[in-house]
Design goal:
Elements (H helix, E strand, L loop, with lengths): L2 H55 L1 H7 L10 H26 L5 H15 L2 H10 L5 H25 L1
Helix pairs in contact: 1-2, 1-3, 3-4
């Protein structure tokens, strides 16, 4: 074998090694992305369980959240409890919304979260709280929640008009 032949074989082997290394890196990145999505889903479930647990453990908080009266009629401690609960809940939704926008949180999982967010926003008192509290959240999330709240208000107005 000539020196040129050996050099050519070495170049081919080096090129193959580079290609194999890139394939390996691609597989690792794909696995890492999958693990990141799974971790986000698990963290979300834990946070949601912890926050919803506050309602199941506290009859007072559950009663406040289901009242028919308006937040303006609540005492300061009552408003603080509900406001803190809602702040935690909406911060959780904000994080999930951001994760979804960047492809970390699966669309299929987001559907359930969005349904829970819509359920929350169907309450006029929570929408009133949101109107006052929206300034502390990311603009993209505010825009999204504002759109949902407006859709729900229209749907409720249409429903009320249909009952008359």
């Amino acid at each position: 074998m000539t020196l040129d032949t050996i050099a050519t074989i070495a170049n081919i082997m080096a090129s193959c090694a580079v290609v194999l290394t890139l394939v390996f890196i691609g597989l690792q990145l794909n696995q890492n992305a999958h693990l990141t999505r799974m971790a986000a889903a698990q963290t979300s479930a834990q946070l949601l369980s912890a926050n919803m647990g506050r309602v199941t453990e506290s009859a007072d908080l559950a009663e406040l959240l289901t009242r028919e009266d308006t937040p303006e009629s609540w005492s300061r401690p009552e408003f603080l409890r509900v406001s803190n609960f809602l702040s935690i809940s909406f911060r959780h939704f904000e994080v999930l919304h951001t994760h979804r926008r960047f492809g970390v949180f699966e669309d299929e999982l987001w559907e359930g979260s969005e349904a829970r967010l819509r359920e929350s926003l169907s309450d006029a008192g929570i929408r009133a709280w949101w109107a006052e509290s929206r300034i502390v959240y990311a603009r993209s999330f505010v825009k999204y929640v504002d759109r949902l709240a407006a859709e729900l208000e229209v749907a409720q107005a249409m429903s009320t008009m249909g009952q008359d």
